[in-house]
Design a protein that fits this description.
7 helices; single chain; alpha/beta
């Protein structure tokens, strides 16, 4: 196999979900992929393929609809990506039995890789994943995070240590959460871990938009506003290695000094266990409502 080309073109599709007309929504996604199939990576926001359960009225409608209407949507989209020879990351939900997962799926002509959101927000009822992953793709080594995952610095560092050149964060961050906080978090993640960071968020009016791409030094390459838009950016993955040579932080790490981060402090433990029990109770109630329906 020849050496991978280091210069890459990225498309970030900052679009919303259209619950009123699913076919129109799917056509929009397909049109974005068709128009940017020559790009090295196309990234869509969190849960953009099937919608977010908390946006449905009554709550839980999406879960019931997944049993019928949405059954083949994912497979159809995967096939389109293969046919177009594109490379796509898209947010979707998956159902196994009565358990639901918030996922990011990477698709190209030959492979499908999925990551399950590991840090589920306390307002959600998804089952959390148990593994942080990087995927070796024609684009490069990609790590993927989903929304609230990005609040945990340990996640970024683990993906960098696993060899990621790029970490993609797909999100549905609400407009109430300040954009400046998100950009500082993402820029910091890039420079502290010496990786490119791609941020794909849903636009307004409910969400904050402001998708962006950051280089390994934490500088902003491109950024969006709040409205629907398609971001395009050119990056050079060789910049990851160059910056790591200029600022070689990884060889000088002292992991024995960091053991405290794996210890759960008492206050943290109390809050976390309480939230877990509350989330599990909500999930069981939702399952019961779904069975009755």
């Amino acid at each position: 196999m020849g050496r991978k080309r280091s210069k890459k073109r990225i498309c970030v599709a900052q679009i919303n979900f259209n619950a009123k007309n699913i076919q129109t929504h799917l056509s929009k996604i397909e049109a974005v992929i068709e128009a940017h199939k020559s790009f090295d990576l196309i990234v869509f926001p969190e849960l953009i393929l099937h919608g977010h359960p908390s946006m449905e009225k009554p709550e839980g409608f999406l879960y019931r609809r997944m049993k019928t209407v949405y059954r083949s949507i994912s497979q159809d989209l995967y096939q389109l990506v293969r046919d177009l020879d594109a490379q796509v990351i898209i947010g979707e939900s998956k159902r196994w039995g009565e358990r639901y997962y918030n996922m990011a799926t990477y698709v190209d002509r030959n492979t499908i890789h999925s990551y399950v959101k590991t840090h589920v927000h306390w307002t959600e009822q998804f089952v959390p994943g148990r593994q942080l992953k990087i995927f070796d793709t024609p684009f490069g080594k990609i790590g993927i995070t989903i929304c609230f995952d990005g609040a945990f610095s340990e996640v970024w560092r683990v993906l960098a240590l696993k060899g990621a050149d790029v970490v993609v964060n797909i999100s549905a961050v609400p407009k109430e959460f300040p954009v400046s906080y998100m950009w500082r978090r993402l820029s910091g993640a890039a420079i502290f871990n010496e990786v490119y960071v791609i941020y794909a968020n849903r636009p307004g009016p409910v969400f904050s938009g402001h998708s962006a791409v950051f280089d390994p030094r934490g500088e902003t390459i491109t950024k969006a506003g709040r409205r629907e838009t398609i971001l395009e950016a050119d990056i050079d993955l060789n910049e990851v290695g160059r910056w790591q040579e200029q600022e070689p932080i990884f060889p000088y790490r002292r992991p024995l000094l960091y053991r405290e981060i794996v210890n759960r402090h008492r206050a943290e433990s109390v809050v976390t266990e309480s939230q877990i029990r509350e989330t599990e109770t909500r999930r069981r109630k939702e399952e019961n409502r779904t069975r009755v329906a």
